[in-house]
Write a structure and sequence with these properties.
Blueprint lengths: L13 H16 L14 H11 L11 E6 L2 H22 L2 H7 L10 H4 L2 E8 L1 E4 L2 E4 L3 H18 L3 E2 L8 H6 L6 E10 L15 H4 L4
Antiparallel strand pairs: 1-2, 2-6, 3-4, 5-6
Bound molecules: 3-iodo-tyrosine (IYR).
Length: 218
Amino acid sequence: MYEFKPLDYKSKSEEEMIRVSNEILENCSSRRSIRDFSDKKFPREVLENVIMTASSAPSGANKQPWTFCIVEDPKIKSEIRKAAEKEEYENYHGRMSDTWLADLAPLGTDWNKPFLETVPYIVVLFKRVYEDFQGEKRNNYYVNESVGIAAGMFIMALHQAGLATLTHTPSPMNFLQKILGRPDNERAYLLLPVGYPATNAEVPVLTKKSREEVIITI
Ligand code: IYR
């Protein structure tokens, strides 16, 4: 049994809640996934703080079933680029359905992933399917849910810190486990190139669903 202590909670007035939630909405809605990154470096401390923010996420039985692997070695980045482009080439030339390709066409994506070498850091988020407990495999709980929440918090914290990323999934991603020498209980979940946007970065003009489309009240 854990020791229990009083919750550290600061209440807000209703006016303040409305004001703050509107500010959060405005700020978070300005976040965009980008594919054109600058090679400009930023302090590693920022990235570590963002990762630790993500790692404060709720998780099944507080197992925190994740590892954030920071890749800064240019040789490894280019190895990752090569392996990712190999998979993506196959995806774009036969593995993805026609409907899928048609859905992606307006985004203008293809199998080329130069940003994997441009960015100062790639973060590979691994989910930890089980833990080794004295030679015994003990499964973690709600692993996808837990890691998904941590990934969302990572993305928002990074945005608050003034940096950008892309949730990249060059599937299948098992090459990352191999290149990065990760153990069998870790599976690549997301690949997140991190950096400043390039000065000429462009993003597609797209809209998000309206309140009426995403909220139902019963
Ligand atoms: N992983 C590929 C294809 C791709 C798939 C989806 I779903 C996207 O939203 C965007 C891209 C790529 O990164 O190009």
